[in-house]
# Entry
Amino acid sequence: MNFYPQERIGLFIDGSNLYAAARSLGFDIDYKRLLDLFASKGRLIRAFYYTALIEDQEYSPIRPLVDWLDYNGYTMVTKPTKEFTDAAGRRKIKGNMDIELAIDVMEMAQHLDHVVLFSGDGDFRRLVEAVQRKGVRVTVVSTVRSQPPMVADELRRQADNFVELQDLEGSIARTPVHREDRNPPPHSDAVLG
# Structure
């Protein structure tokens, strides 16, 4: 990874995208280790985590993760999912956080030297280009090793650096939890897109 010690770093994590990428590679992310890794690379200003929440469920599988992140150094950006029926009459749930992430990156750009975007979504190519014009370097973290690759080629080409998520596995993977452990790191099996 290409970081400078005095760089002001901002992490922007597309929660469902990162979860899907890590799952496709066969590991779970330990978000404390992830935060520690990037804090060691420069001056970590803020770590944003974006996810949609199903509000009307009695229990959401992602809620423990959201609460843990909120208390442990992450700035949580959430919104309720929207339920709709598609043209074929199937019930669908939508929870896209792209606009929220893009607005935060643009607002934070003046306070950062380096944006780290955890997403492979090609829709972010123009966002990356816009913050680069402001003099901010952008690293994209995703994977090309899944089938199909989870990072859009145009996003990868636009970024100043691309970090293969699998190469970070040794530094950010959650270690298996033993039953005798009292406070296991949280994880989620929920995927919202």
In short: Residues 73 and 117 are 17 Å apart (CA to CA).
